[in-house]
Amino acid sequence: MKQELAEEGSRCSILSKQHRFNEHCCIRCCAPFTFLLNPKRLCLDCQYNVCKTCCTYSKRDKAWLCSACQKGRWAKQLEVFETENKALDIMVEVLKAPPQDASSMSKGKGR
Ligand SMILES: [Zn+2]
Ligand SMILES: [Zn+2]
Prior knowledge:
Keywords: Cytoplasm. Pfam families: FYVE_2 (PF02318). By secondary structure, this protein is mainly alpha-helical. It has one domain: 2-Layer Sandwich (Herpes Virus-1), CATH 3.30.40.10. The radius of gyration is 26 Å and the shape is elongated.
């Protein structure tokens, strides 16, 4: 129990340090923020500050997304796409299978 609390405490201190680091530097490429040349942007998904080159504006969300979170979103979309495709394959197999089975069942076993 004490160990768990200690672990939680150390985790928080690490996070706060990271947060302080993130106040001044991009969480993705570690480039320091400058007022005009490299302004920081807050990522919608991970809530970290990222630099101009590491984020893109999402028109749908009307917010900034860092490259990592954008990739994460693509991966999720791809996953959905793949599972839909797999479901389609299974459906095609199911649709193909019954006639073959039915013919072999009725005719093939007549020996
Ligand atoms: Zn960056
Ligand atoms: Zn992010």
